[in-house]
Amino acid sequence: MEKISIAAFAFCLSTSALFAMDSEERLTAQEEELRLVQETYDTRINDVMETLNEKDSTAFFKARAEGKYVTWKDFEIEMPSLQMFTIKEEPYGYTLKSKHNARESVTVLVYTRDDDLYYKTTIGKKASNDFSRMVEAIFEAEGETTSREGTACNSKAVSCIGGYEKGTPGKNKK
């Protein structure tokens, strides 16, 4: 019984720290964790893409067209433990939900365009403006168009090569 009381006290103490933060401290902590998740995911995709494309520059694209490299397991991704968010796997990405404010969530899909990574984000409809701006700043595509409707590299393509010449929607699996 004493172990349960100690564990409950420790849990209350750790979660109370989340709620004791002011909004600026919370946004800073959220930004750090978003960047950590982005770096973890992106590093593994880049490593796999580089390895596959060493001998054949279209190997990663072909693998994605065949339905490979969709899940975290495919990339051997181990996400870090997070204090500010819960994280859930999505095909080609992830969803993060704030532990502090249920309205603050973002789904991030990571698409490849030749050897570059781009993000399609869907921010929770009732998220604060500060949270939305932070997410957009982290995952912005630096003004480049990542797809072109009417080409093989349209908005549903998870991977493209040769500019807009070839695109694949992949195969969603989980």
Features:
6 strands, 5 helices, single chain, 174 residues, alpha+beta, 6-stranded mixed sheet
Describe the structure.
The structure is a single chain. The N and C termini lie far apart (40 Å). This protein has 174 residues and is an alpha+beta fold. The model is unreliable at 7-19 (pLDDT under 50). Strands 1, 2, 3, 4, 5 and 6 form a six-stranded mixed beta sheet that branches. The chain has five helices and six strands, in the order ααααββββαββ.
Major sheet summary line: 6 strands, mixed
State the end-to-end CA separation. Answer: 40 Å
- Helix-strand sequence: HHHHEEEEHEE
The helix content, as a percent range, equals: 40-55%
Overall body shape: globular
Approximately how much beta-strand content do the residues carry? 15-25%
Task: Tell me the total number of β-strands.
Answer: 6
Q: Outline the low-pLDDT stretches.
A: 7-19
Q: What is the rounded Rg? A: 19 Å
**Average pLDDT figure:** 86
Tally of DSSP helical segments? 5
Structural class: alpha+beta
